[in-house]
Input
Amino acid sequence: MSILLDSSTMVIVQGITGREGGFHTEQMQSMGTKVVGGTSPGKGGTTHLGVPVFDTAADAVRATGANASGIFVPAPFAADAIMEAAAAGITLIVCITEGIPIQDMIRVKEFLRGYPQARLVGANCPGLITPGQAKIGIIPQRITSPGAVGLVSRSGTLTYEVASALSAAGLGQSTIVGIGGDPVLGLTFRDVVELFVQDPGTTNLVLIGEIGGSDEEHAAELLARGSRLKAVAFISGRTAPEGKRMGHAGAIISGNRGTAKSKEEAFRKAGVAVAETTDDIVGMLR
Amino acid sequence: MSILLDSSTMVIVQGITGREGGFHTEQMQSMGTKVVGGTSPGKGGTTHLGVPVFDTAADAVRATGANASGIFVPAPFAADAIMEAAAAGITLIVCITEGIPIQDMIRVKEFLRGYPQARLVGANCPGLITPGQAKIGIIPQRITSPGAVGLVSRSGTLTYEVASALSAAGLGQSTIVGIGGDPVLGLTFRDVVELFVQDPGTTNLVLIGEIGGSDEEHAAELLARGSRLKAVAFISGRTAPEGKRMGHAGAIISGNRGTAKSKEEAFRKAGVAVAETTDDIVGMLR
Amino acid sequence: MKLLEYQAKEVLASLGIAIPPGVVARNPAEAAAAFARLGPVAVKAQVPVGGRGKAGGIKLASSEAEARRAAEQIIGMDIKGFKVPLVYCEAALDIAREIYLGFTVDRDARANILMLSAKGGMEIEQVAEESPAAIARLYPNPWRGPLDFELTQLVFDAGLGDLSRPLVSLIKKLYRAIPDYDALTAEINPLVVTKRGEVIAGDAKLEIDDNAMWRHKDLEEKYGAVIEGDPYEVEAKKRGLTYVSLDGDIGIIGNGAGLCMGTLDLVQRAGGRPANFCDIGGGAKAEVVENALAVILMNPKVKGVLINVFGGITRGDEVAKGVVTARDNLKMTLPLVVRMSGTREEEGREILKRNGIEPGVSGWEAAKKIVELTRAGVT
Amino acid sequence: MKLLEYQAKEVLASLGIAIPPGVVARNPAEAAAAFARLGPVAVKAQVPVGGRGKAGGIKLASSEAEARRAAEQIIGMDIKGFKVPLVYCEAALDIAREIYLGFTVDRDARANILMLSAKGGMEIEQVAEESPAAIARLYPNPWRGPLDFELTQLVFDAGLGDLSRPLVSLIKKLYRAIPDYDALTAEINPLVVTKRGEVIAGDAKLEIDDNAMWRHKDLEEKYGAVIEGDPYEVEAKKRGLTYVSLDGDIGIIGNGAGLCMGTLDLVQRAGGRPANFCDIGGGAKAEVVENALAVILMNPKVKGVLINVFGGITRGDEVAKGVVTARDNLKMTLPLVVRMSGTREEEGREILKRNGIEPGVSGWEAAKKIVELTRAGVT
Output
């Protein structure tokens, strides 16, 4: 079992004719992901990588019935592509693009309130993979293996690192979700944890957090209510110095939240084991 | 019985300390309307016409439990006042103000989609009155009398004219609603007709329409489905010359709709009698 | 306020939209100078109404003499009640395609609508009727404005996908006329694609919401005085009245647009022909009635006046006194019928009678009376 | 990009917000001239960090000599790693009240937040902690911006109702910094009400989203070069690296922010002190590694470097070759530990060993190794 994505998910790739989009579409296809089409304005009617290309996401959805999209377009166009996907009826939107202006994403978040069925993963994230079934994004398939560990992470490379270690230790994964590290993003830690809690195919949970924001604390609150999942958390950045901030506005709203300490304490309180290094995670899961 | 408004409705007046707002508040009070407060930024904490004044509509609603508001503020501030009332939880908003820019009203209409409980009457309308019980707006009480005729109109003075004639003939009114003549407004003809159809206290219906738009046609469609109400319609402007329009955009979207002829035909098709002059209405109702 | 073509184009240019080179000419000499500067030009009458082409208001000039002659013929001509104050001399475009692009208010949808069609040019209304699917439509959210993906879809839906980038960019610029200038209509027809691939506004229509002019005093100052329409309408506007000239001989005054329109209907039904629509709004103060009467009496065709007032808040006796005062101040001698109803209507009628003014009981009676009196006047 | 105070104030002024008269001075003579023009001034260090007052970066000058001396003392001083490039000489205000006003991004709410408090000035963070209710808050809808009634409520909630009109108007102007300039923070503290009742920005902080600088090339051109921060950070920025200077002696390179931060944690845990944070992003091309190493080696405190790379798409052997090439090109002799995992990690380690670079199997082992090697270097 899995969350969000499985072998039946019908995926389009926005920006399929681009270098990144094309490369990762091939990777996605090579593990069996059902890529049913792609978009590239002006190239509608052509075929790329064996699938039809459309001018717009709405055209693609109408023609293919796609319900998921991977977005690989440059940052200046990515926010628009997310909104386009939602308006076209896509319910799982995965935006890999890095460097989207924060104000664009704030507007996107507000826009998405009008499309409650649409779930956004990212932006600036590696995407998600359900090993053995499908992936949307750039998580390398070969470091993953099917199983029952749910993995959710704010960091790309740390995700790979932990997934590798889990796979090497014979601990397969139900789904791996890289939610991204941007300040304003789609699915939160808590959202993903909630999905894993409801997934009968997931028995263990690994949470890779980072300093900043309160997402980890919110996820911990949810787990503190009791869950059948055996969980291990890791927070990176515990020794990072406070940013060279200016102005008081940030301090006024964040107070003492967002430090590695507050996150680790929240997890411990929730009965979640906290790993000191990623190397420790596998041992603590068994 | 009545629609929208009765003696239990708790009304605030936005702009109560202004000349118009004050004058009509007194008129509203003199017929027994439950005016529970008013707003005027900076005058919060004072009392005017025997009711408390608040700085904002939210403050007024919190303190008084008001569920309706009459807006008597100048045009540059009126759109904001409507949104303020909706955000404060007011469910019946009556905006008398004339001359609100159309783009302001288009934004207001979109804003109100987020507040589906809020019903807006107007702007640029005489408001509504449930004779013998309460009024919000400027329809003179003395030309009305309680009864069972529902009256909905796009025109102010024609409403007065018809109400007077009805009252003089002993035909009292359940509620009189002046929806206003602006191109972009709140409740439509059809919305109000729908309420009258559902009101057991209303047995007859008078509709005073005007050339332009398709609201009358839409109301006729509703009545064409069959209704227990005996209805008479009048359309003013049948001899008015076509506006000196420029550009094609208006013609492209309106086509042949909006003429007096199309409206009268729609009503006749729906089984609604069409009066040639307002003088004929009373006779046709009996 | 309906801007003239050259004014609308100036606004479009300020929004970043390409327009052809052009020069305003107030007299034949200026038109000749424009030719000298621009070469072959279209000499176009500047009036805030459509149909000037059919009315002979556009002439092509391929020499200085032709430009001069065209201006001579066009300046001062009357197009649908507007005296042409000046012409706009514009360089001819090397047209490859003509597109229709327009924003306007769709009052049924209570929203702005954006329309785009590959079949631009004069016949767009016919296109709308015969093949409505040829016009792609979008209702932009008024807070967000049209989004890129929405515009991209629109452009492809209109079959203009090959121009997707320039059109999306141009439409976003044109849209700014709505929030920035309270435009009710912002239309470019034709939007010209030249043989070199440039996208240029061939014509432009811009109507600014009169209710929002307080936000655009700059536009009013810059352009307000140029447009010369019907002289009575101009005068009425100065006096703050809602007035429209019609071509009959019975002056009409009413309070409220509905009542006023209803009065026109009644007069017409009684066999008369209204000379105007004039709404004096709520109440009926002597000063406002006097202003309205004054404008109506400027028109020599007017043979009599019907005033139809409903006294809602205002009392009938006060209205009557106001009308009498206004008539006396203006020394009006033409037939005058006043119909009023509402509070104290009897007292009001009494005052009118005492002052030799015919009072009407119902609108229909009053309409018949004024028609009768004006006919009598003719005989 | 964090603007300096005078830059932020220039932007605020362009949005229509009142600022005190002020002059930028790049040297003591210019400060003296500023005094001559403005009279008594505050001479303020221009650095993109808070706390300059406590660091001695603000001095009042009531004579030309004092202004000159203040500039002498302040220009060139180091405030939290920033060398003060210039001072801003600003006329003193006749302060009646100090208000706090700020927009920023609330990442938990994924929205912009607007905060307003009657208790402005230096101690606002204390106010936030001790009496949070003294700070009124609003999350404006990002498409609509803050609406008038929302701002009116905010102003009354903050107990500033007597200033409702000027504050609502000012806040709307300040808000424009968000959509127009991609501001992440736009703060005025104190917002000064003078004894004459004017509302003026006493200080100003403006941070523009680096990810949106392509939309604001004008700002970057105008202000980008003025701010002189940590020299390694400046150099790293030129080379397109995500780099933050720290005060230890072990250089760190990682791909991905999470992995990089995790590496800092490991080094610290192993008893070492990182000299920097440097994220080279996905892949690990020789050129990027070389740029990162070059910047790190500029710092004379650095005694060794740890590279921690996970090869996701990139293969381990390619990463190894890239690292070897970079080291050779830079003729680096300091201890270098490279830990890599992912595809073809064994082949990669083999290449490293062959070239005399210490390969690490796990991050933790690698961290201990570089700490050991750099300590050995000291002995």
Chain A has a mean pLDDT of 92. The CA atoms of residues 187 and 204 of chain A lie 20 Å apart. Chain A touches chain D through 65 residues (CB under 8 Å).
